Amino acid sequence: MRQILVTSALPYANGHIHLGHLVEYIQTDIWVRFQRLVGNRCVFVCADDTHGTAISIRAKQEGRSEEAVIADMKAAHERDFAGFSVSFDNYGSTNSPSNRALCNELWQKIRAAGLVVEKSVTQLFDPVAKQFLADRYVRGNCPKCGAPDQYGDSCDKCGAAYSPTDLTNPVSALSGATPELQSSPHWFINTEQMHDFLATWTRSGALHEDVANWLAGAFLAEPLRDWDVSRPAPYFGFEIPDAPGNYWYVWFDAPIGYMASTKDWCDRVGEKFDDWWRSDQTEIHHFIGKDITYFHTLFWPVMLKAAGFTLPKAVHIHGFLTVNGEKMSKSKGTFIRAATYLQSGLDPHYLRYFYASKLTPKLDNLDLGLEDFVAKVNGDLVGKVVNLASRTAKFVRETGLAAVYPDDGGLFAEAAAEGTAIAEAYEACDYNQAMRRIMALADRANKFVDERAPWTLKKDPSKAAELQQVCTVALNLFRQLVVYLAPVMPRLAEQTGELLSSPIGSWNETQQPLVGTAVNEYKHLLSRVDMKQVEAMVEASRESAPSNEPAASTPAAGGAGTWNDDRSALDAEPLVADRITIDQFTAVDLRVARVIEAKEVPEAKKLLQLTLLLGGDEKRNVFAGIKAAYKPEDLVGRLVVMVANLEPRQMKFGLSEGMVTAAGPGGPEVFLLGVDSGAKPGQRVH
RNA sequence: GGGCCAGUAGCUCAGUCGGUUAGAGCAGGGCACUCAUAAUGCCUUGGUCGGGGGUUCGAGUCCCUCCUGGCCUACCA
């Protein structure tokens, strides 16, 4: 029996769980349930990731404490996970006493190992908010192209990367004050000392070959840079004991949260922590998304190694979720929260099955095609698997299963033998292959029922024994499939246990037929999905109507009159605290303009070239970064709002004489400002 | 610009070490069945394996090159 500790990445306490997150939790939970089913000791822990600047800012905006914010989010996360049958043994928080204690312990050991170095860092400091500013909380003019209101790390307009101290006219997004340069001590972990260890560990089999190759090329080919793990006060996190006024950076304490959650579980159930994190007997498996690969494959192993803990046996990395082949989109309604799915009435296990049918050990993105989803659930689960019980159970309602397992031509034995390959596929996270094999078995079982036609036997009382035999075989083949599917469809396994009067609790039950038990009345085990349910869920997730349609015509799931507007957009671009005068506003000459020409700029990735008419022959040539969101032909003729007195800017493709106004985060999600009908080109916006 | 990955049927994808006539599921077409949730079974249409070149007795598979898409990285506006 193996002893296995499994983690999923800690969701950040600043947002709700959505279908993208669920890829990971479902992938992990299936693996965990599989391990338990085959008889391994498998403990699954997770926690909320609670620290960092984003939480503080949100708390401030909402006028309550950080603790209050994270408590609410934790409760919401746990509800969502429970709704999708994610079977954590413990769900903790990085803001816990156990995590603080473990952070201290690791820190001391990493220091003792000689890996900690102190260096002075010069950063922008907000004199009003009295804190240092992370890159994204500094806005200013791009040092390269001069574009206004850019983040401190890179420019949306020209893509230039720079440091926040390079911005011209920098402004704090927190207070609107002009930040000042200020130095402060920071503590770093010198990962370069562990270079050789990492070179070996990344090739130890813990990582997919592609990942090891990427690390070798992108990081390990040259000396590793020191990793800055401290932040000066104020910061929502744990204060570093031997560096008062400084806090551990969220990515230092977050992975330690895996350990803290394990510790909490140990304390609760009477286990020893060292058996799980300081033991050769325990395999540690992390499941993560590819976006956080290097934290888990470089820094984390270094921390564990330096502090003398067990290294991960494997880090399983998955890709991102797309919906209908595209990035999840709030405007298209494909940014679907876990809670919205649950409220829609769709069975959460359907999503588990769908993800399982798509998941492989590769890092590829996974697409949730909504039509595909409906077809798979209805075709595979209802049409093939559950159909076996549905078409035979009632014939043995009175007799129960035969006392001796009849001759089935070797079907059960063949399917039992297939168990090895299915188990290997689960173990390797190749659920796609496991599902394919299971469905192939379902096909064979349905064929058997078709050939033996129990409905014909039913008509001839002298064939009652044969009828019972045929149904005993069919129901055993069904039950075998359900056991194979149990890691994915735990609820179905329970229901099947009730139907056949014998609970399912072990993988071994696929190897031995069930005989002589009572068969209870058949009730639908799963119901078909109607595309309309899915469409309703998408509608409930849609945040802003794509056209001028009033939002009120599409009430959200919460009922009429609710608009379901969360604050995610605000969080992405915090309100500017700095007030302006009316004069400053009127300095911006906003005008209604008609797009009279729009064309592609072939060499440009993001730009369209627009000719805007302000009336008469007053025209402006404007380059707009909206190529991913609009087609030129859809723009010609429409009215937009432009900044008419913006300093003209020489761009690679020509002179840009203004700017069209739009909302949205960028890329395909750009929404041009329009005006209500009646407005005329040239009119000023007041 | 540099690097990495991918491209196989309408869709989603298998395809081992280079080895027979390139497979599956879904979708499409036909037939059967009527127990089952319009479920199931049988038959069937559909591919220049992104293009081109090369190595080889033999290439979806190996090499070169080009095209397309994605990711990483650098730069330009």
Could you characterize what this model shows?
Helix 4 (97-112) crosses helix 7. It contains 22 helices and 26 strands. A five-stranded parallel β-sheet has the order 3-2-1-13-14, with helices on both faces. Strands 20-19-18-21-24 form a five-stranded antiparallel β-sheet. The protein is 37% helix and 18% strand. It has 686 residues and is of the alpha+beta class. The longest helix is centred in the middle third of the chain and has 22 residues, at 431-452. The chain binds one RNA strand of 77 nucleotides through helix 6, helix 12, helix 15, helix 16 and strand 22.
Topology:
Layout: E1 3-8, H1 19-37, E2 41-48, H2 53-62, H3 66-83, E3 90-93, H4 97-112, E4 116-126, E5 131-132, E6 138-141, E7 150-151, E8 168-172, E9 180-189, H5 195-201, H6 209-218, E10 227-228, E11 230-232, E12 246-248, H7 250-269, H8 274-277, E13 282-289, H9 293-307, E14 314-318, E15 321-323, E16 326-327, H10 338-343, H11 348-358, E17 366-368, H12 370-390, H13 411-417, H14 419-427, H15 431-452, H16 454-457, H17 464-485, H18 490-499, H19 531-541, H20 568-572, H21 582-586, E18 590-600, E19 608-613, E20 619-624, H22 632-635, E21 639-643, E22 649-651, E23 654-656, E24 659-660, E25 662-666, E26 669-672
Parallel strand pairs: 1-2, 1-13, 2-3, 13-14, 15-17
Antiparallel strand pairs: 4-5, 4-9, 6-7, 6-8, 9-10, 11-12, 15-16, 18-19, 18-21, 19-20, 21-24, 22-23, 25-26
Helix pairs in contact: 2-3, 4-7, 4-9, 11-12, 11-15, 12-15, 12-17, 13-17, 14-15, 15-17, 17-18
The structure holds one RNA strand of 77 nucleotides.
